[in-house]
Design a protein that fits this description.
The complex is a heterodimer of chains A (244) and B (431). Chain A contains ten helices and ten strands. With 244 residues, chain A is α/β, with parallel strands linked by helices. Chain A has a six-stranded mixed β-sheet, sandwiched between helices. The radius of gyration of chain A is 18 Å and the shape is globular. The N and C termini of chain A lie far apart (39 Å). Helices cover 32% and strands 26% of the residues of chain B. Chain B is globular and about 70 Å long. By secondary structure, chain B is of the alpha/beta class. In chain B, α2 crosses α3, α5 crosses α6 and α10 packs across α12. In chain B, strands 3, 4, 5, 6, 7, 8, 9, 10, 11, 12, 13, 14 and 15 form a 13-stranded mixed β-sheet that branches. A four-stranded mixed β-sheet of chain B has the order 20-19-18-21. Classes of the chains: A alpha/beta (244), B alpha/beta (431). Chains A and B meet through β1, β2, β9 and β10 of A and α2 and α5 of B.
């Protein structure tokens, strides 16, 4: 579904992505794990069109989307849930959802809007009870759910999730990951950036390990969980000894 | 047509190439970070891992040979600390150039699955009773063949130490359906059955899986199939990567499918090192794409083969290679033991009264392969007592056995009698 080859990206003068190649198949959950500053968020922001791709190719289905604007990329079926939620705090839950459904708000496509709203309310019943509440007054977990729900309102085929567990209590994180798992059953494809490698590898089908803008490992989640280098660096199971 | 994992084995060519590119780039990035040898190697060749944007860029790196492995022996090319290695497969001490291959837990799991994939391709199922007639201490692949069959749910009997007659008796008693052995051992069974007029119908065998690095021909396959009433399938491996496990034959018996999701194969001209297009005969070069402990980039296998570009009727999309017909080096394999003539030369040079001129004759005696060494000795030896001649023969025999692990026949000849003779004479006929 998504295929990337030799992607380079820069922020300012700094080259952040240095030749990334990866792919995500339909209905897969794929995770990107890596340390802070490795380039994971830059990668999904580049896919979403928020950061320009300097070199390389991004294919979504049969189309090259590497040079398209963020709006066009959303219309192709890719939605981003940004790091830190980025909600419109002074607006209500429903307003935020409507903004997510921007491509479907014309009179002719109102049916799609209603359909998506129904699906979102089914996935997040708590939001149904809070439609009039201001987004800024929701709890952290509810805000994260709203951010995912807002992305779903654009009726995407693929959803890009940037650090959905950030700043949330473990119980809430579990709930959010439960929601991501349910997205799979809705025939969605997910690319998940996550610092909590353990959780991400439990949920995802496959993973890529990003270090300083390059992929240094890839494989099924099961294989990556078994990998001692990943255990040491990201799963906190052992410490690297000096002689190594 | 049976598959171990249908999705993996029937990916589109585009999917395979994307996966190979991703895995190649990840491997290059990782070895650059973790292995001092590769850091120097990239530096010396003035290239960085991110210069490899397509699979076709790989020839920018030079080839790695067995000598490179020997120079970095034992742990110089390991990409993980030793405590993450769960298995070591060294070659025999003093045999060939030294190497030791490490495997992490993941490497072993992948290797096992690749073996199961190969066996499923040969129609092994959980209903089979598999007899492993391989020496577990000499042949690393024996353990993996064993685990691969178990992964499929088959019942495995490791009966490696028994002589051929006992192997046959046990096949009859336990109703073995699949036999895993080297080509030599399969031929031992064939010859034993012919010589002793054993009724092949008293066996319940339906498949023989050939493993090991010995070369075998379609003639041999036919003999085994016709004598034992079985289907014979080959498995290809490289001791320095994994053997078996690199490629496997499907039921079409039309070439070996290379596990391209784990290995990238190239064919080169052995003289110039130039990459040859698919369909041309040359030396097989393998790059590992998923090995954690001992990744190898552009390793020269020494095996001469051809990559077959057309699709296989079985539906698998992995490229096929022809059965290896010859080698680009002088490697000799006798009864599963590998050596090069230089090793014999080195042994002989350490013995007094023996010259450096010798001939190696590979013979077949009954069901056994034998190595005969004809060697020139000083004339004075023949003038001495018979006892001293016999002592010298025993000394040569003992030294060769100690170093190569083969008990040879020794024929001592006068100086200059080997002039003009070929160094190696393979006199093993297929009959």
């Amino acid at each position: 579904m998504l295929r990337i080859a030799n992607l380079y990206s820069r922020i300012g003068k700094g080259e952040i992505l240095k030749g990334i190649s990866m792919h995500v198949k339909k209905n897969e959950i794929v995770t990107l794990i890596g340390a802070n500053g490795a380039g994971k968020s830059t990668l999904i922001n580049t896919i979403a069109g928020l950061i320009p791709a300097w070199e390389g190719e991004i294919w979504f289905g049969e189309e090259e989307i590497g040079r398209l604007s963020p709006m066009k990329i959303v219309r192709k079926g890719i939605a981003l849930v940004p790091e830190g939620r980025q909600l419109f705090a002074p607006l209500s839950v429903l307003d935020n959802l409507q903004l997510g459904a921007y491509p479907w708000l014309r009179r002719s496509t109102q049916g799609v809007y209603a359909e998506m709203l129904e699906m979102v309310m089914e996935l997040f019943p708590i939001l149904g009870k809070r439609t009039g509440q201001l987004a800024g007054t929701l709890s952290g977990g509810e805000q994260q759910m709203l951010a995912i729900a807002r992305a779903l309102m654009s009726k995407p085929k693929m959803i890009l999730l940037d650090e959905p567990s950030m700043g949330l209590a473990p119980r809430v994180v579990e709930e959010i990951f439960g929601v991501i798992d349910r997205l799979r059953k809705k025939n969605l494809t997910v690319l998940l950036v996550e610092q909590n490698a353990r959780l991400a590898l439990e949920l995802a089908d496959r993973g890529y390990v990003v270090e300083t803008g390059q992929i240094i490992m890839e494989g099924s989640s099961e294989d990556l969980r078994q990998n001692k280098e990943i255990e040491r660096a990201y799963l906190g199971k052992a410490y690297k000894e000096i002689w190594e | 047509m049976r598959f171990f994992n249908l999705k993996e084995e029937t990916m589109s060519r585009e999917e395979i190439r994307q996966l190979q590119l991703e895995r190649l780039q990840a491997t290059l990035n990782r070895v650059m970070r973790n292995v001092a040898f590769y850091q120097t190697w990239f530096k010396e060749n003035n290239v960085l891992p991110n210069a490899f944007r397509t699979l076709e860029d790989l020839p920018r790196l030079p080839l790695i040979t067995r000598e490179t492995l020997a120079r970095n022996h034992p742990y110089g090319m390991f990409a993980v600390p030793l405590r993450e290695v769960v298995r070591l497969h060294p070659n025999l001490p003093n045999v060939g150039s030294p190497f030791v291959i490490g495997y992490t837990k993941n490497d072993v799991l992948i290797w096992t699955k690749l073996k199961a994939r190969g066996f499923a391709g040969a129609d092994m199922t959980k209903n089979d009773l598999v007899q492993v007639y391989l020496d577990y201490s000499l042949f690393p692949g024996a353990v993996v063949a064993h685990y691969g069959a178990e992964e499929l749910g088959a019942c495995v009997t490791p009966l490696y130490t028994m002589p051929v007659e006992d192997q046959i008796a046990l096949m009859q008693s336990y109703r073995t359906t699949v036999l895993i052995c080297t080509p030599t051992r399969a031929m031992h069974i064939v010859r034993y059955i012919r010589l002793n007029q054993v009724d092949p119908k008293s066996l319940f065998l339906r498949t023989v899986l050939l493993v090991g690095n010995e070369m075998w021909s379609s003639g041999m396959r036919k003999q085994i199939e016709d004598t034992l009433f079985v289907d014979v399938f080959g498995n290809y491996g490289v001791p320095e990567i994994c053997t078996p496990g690199v490629a496997y034959e499907c039921q079409e018996k039309a070439g070996f499918h290379i596990n391209e999701d784990h290995f990238y194969a190239e064919i080169i001209d052995p003289e110039t090192g130039r990459v040859l297009p698919h369909g041309e005969k040359g030396e097989l070069v393998i790059t590992t794409l998923t090995k954690e402990a001992f990744p190898l980039i552009r390793f020269r296998t020494g095996d001469i083969t051809t990559l077959l570009p057309d699709e296989c009727p079985c539906g698998r999309t992995f490229v096929r290679m022809e059965n290896v017909a010859s080698r680009s080096d002088e490697l000799i394999i006798v009864d599963g033991v590998e050596f090069v003539p230089a090793e014999i030369a080195s042994v002989l040079s350490s013995i007094e009264n023996v010259s450096s001129h010798f001939c190696l004759n590979l013979l077949r005696e009954g069901i056994q392969d034998r190595l005969e060494i004809e060697v020139e000795v000083r004339p004075s030896v023949f003038n001495d007592k018979l006892g001293s001649l016999e002592a010298l023969r025993e000394r040569i025999e003992e030294q060769v056995y100690r170093n190569i692990r083969i008990k040879p026949l020794i024929k001592m000849v006068e100086p200059k009698s080997l002039e003009g003779r070929e160094r190696v004479n393979d006199l093993r006929s297929e009959g």
